[in-house]
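Hey, weird one. I pasted the NAD(P)H oxidase (H2O2-forming) sequence into the form twice and got a warning about non-standard characters only the second time. First submission, copied straight from the form history:
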Amino acid sequence: MTSGISVENPPIQSKPYFQDRRQQRLDHFFREAYARAFDQPKLSDIENREPDTDDILNQTITKSELAQAMGMRENDMFVQRMFSVTCRSDSDVITFAEFLEVLKKFSDSNIRDKYKLLFAMCDVHGNGRVRRSEFAEFVRSLNAVVGVNITENSQNHVIESILSRSGVSPATEYLSAADFEAIFSQVDERRPVGVDFRGAKIKVNLQETASLSSFAVSAIQEHHCTPRNIFGTIAAFVETYRQHIAIMFIFCCINAIVFLERFWHYRYETEHRDLRRVMGVGIAITRGAAGALSFCMAVVLLTVCRNVITVVRETPLGEFIPFDSAITFHKIVALFAAFWASLHTIGHCVNFYNVATQSQEGLNCLFQEAVFGSNFLPSISYWFYGTITGLTGILLVAVMSIIYVFALPCFMKRAYHAFRLTHLLNVAFYALTVLHGLPKLLDSPKFWYYAIGPVIIFVIDRIMGMRQEYKKLRILNAELLPSDIIYLQFKRPSSFSFRSGQWVRISSPAFSCAFNECHAFSLASAPQSPTLELYIKAVGPWTWKMRSEIIRAQANGSPYPLVHMNGPYGDGNQEWTNYEVAILVGGGIGVTPYASTLTDLVLETTSGRHHNVKCKKVYFLWVCPTHKNYEWFVDVLKDVEELDRNELLETHIFVTQFFHKFDLRTTMLYICEKHFRGDHQGVSMFTGLRAHNHFGRPNFDAFFSYIQNVHHDTPDIGVFSCGPSALNDQISSACARANRARDAPSFMHRFETF
């Protein structure tokens, strides 16, 4: 063996009865190899190294195991050529040292070793020259890794452009090592922003990112973004969340004022009745809690008026009220209501006990509206079960408990239909609240003073909802896409008007309760389109039922199920038109609203007519495991790029799946992606897009620093994201850190979580 390592153990694959153990050893094999090749000690888990590490380093792997580790088939050309170059003997296995040697050539800074290795991989016959067709075939073989369909003619055009740019004549049939050197002479050795070795994040010098990606940060970055001190940091936080802070401050102040007013009244002003002597401070606390609870119950109605919110957010009020956080505020108000209700309930339990110990004369003084028989002395059970106030109080506690329990995230996720049904009990809850105060045991009812306005607005909202309800919409086209994604297209109702970034609620009487079970989905079609399109991820019972109905209809040739639609409803993503510079970030299926937004952007700005789009530059970042499962969105991006004649849009695609498995594909794809383009603005041979492909997760700190440097004269930059909560949290944190810089643009983050 040229590697100098004696191989005594048989291939790992020859021990089938240790399948789990074999996989662990394979993972350890590749982890250790990548740790050494890329100088990332964290990858090798040195502190937790297994006792048999040295034994693993002496193991061998077969071609099938190499293919499995790379996520490819054993007969794929790339696997065969990679194995052939790595194996230095006639054996059908490769050693750790052989694998490490090849890996180091990809990770090392010596570009000459890289192109020699690539030349050897393309030199099928080993005669020191590579046919032009063999080179093209080798490059095309990498496309199977990405999984996006791109025509062979398009790929050949890109490859020929690269060869021509490198000085290779069209008449040249064979490529030499010198030709390879010309092709790869400009390969950038530094890793792209965002590459992540399974948690071992690579630190990137912001002043050296010019060739890493388009996120170039010049030396004047520090001048524009001087860090703030602690007071500046606090000021930046307040500036970022000023709307939320103001609303919460006002809400808390009103709660405190209402509570204290009622508390003061019953503690110090009600002297003509004997309440204070009998109940003490308890009556003041319970009445104060009742007032604050009434206020919360009124406010909580406003937070669910979706149709009214959609209209009001277009008015100047949208500048002062964070309507995007309506549901979050709804939950906060509900928690306040639960606190006041608990305080009110516990306080009255004590009060009723004190009342039950009073004499007949004392009761007549306390409850002037109540009439008792001359020989009747009510007990505590009477106050609970014999009065309207007591009975309605018990029912209110029961109803409130049911509503709150089924509103917990664990119940909503597993039993969404039950959550919707139990929330309908709110009608009974408000009716019982009105009945609760009718007997006037302590005072005339005040609840309706708080509730009358919100109830009227709520009724108006429901009327608007009925006007925006579209029943029996027929599905024109439906497709089942990879990753359990369902595509639905139906005719757009003539009266249906919407903005890009908005969403609708869908139900289907064919397999669910159309009255109660509605599900929210972002519109993927542009406002200019005559049809409406939805891309639905099958993740719950309703969506899986929809998928089954589509399969059944396609198999039997029967009509697709009818759907009911409500909406559209406003969302923070629709505000992208208000910013000169906008950043859109989509994660996974969260790209759906941006299919509408990006199409709307290019159609409006290239139409030649007046429009309200302020955007001068839009950055779109798509974070996805792989292109393969989202070919439909790649097609959308292709159409958008063709229409984007003003070059307003800059797209970056971050493929996260590859790097997590320590596979060789990442290095190969990165090298090819950086240089297999017809020109600086050429298309990717993997996707057919002008979009920049990155392999790893985005480094939002570096990206936002780049944006602040390029657009330092822009006061506010809109950041819009849609995806998992982890992605939105990461972006929010990065925005907060970027906003700490003085004399730099501020990032205003709007997001939607799915």
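That's the output from the first submission. The warning seems to come from a hidden character in my clipboard, not from the data itself. The longest strand covers residues 617-624.
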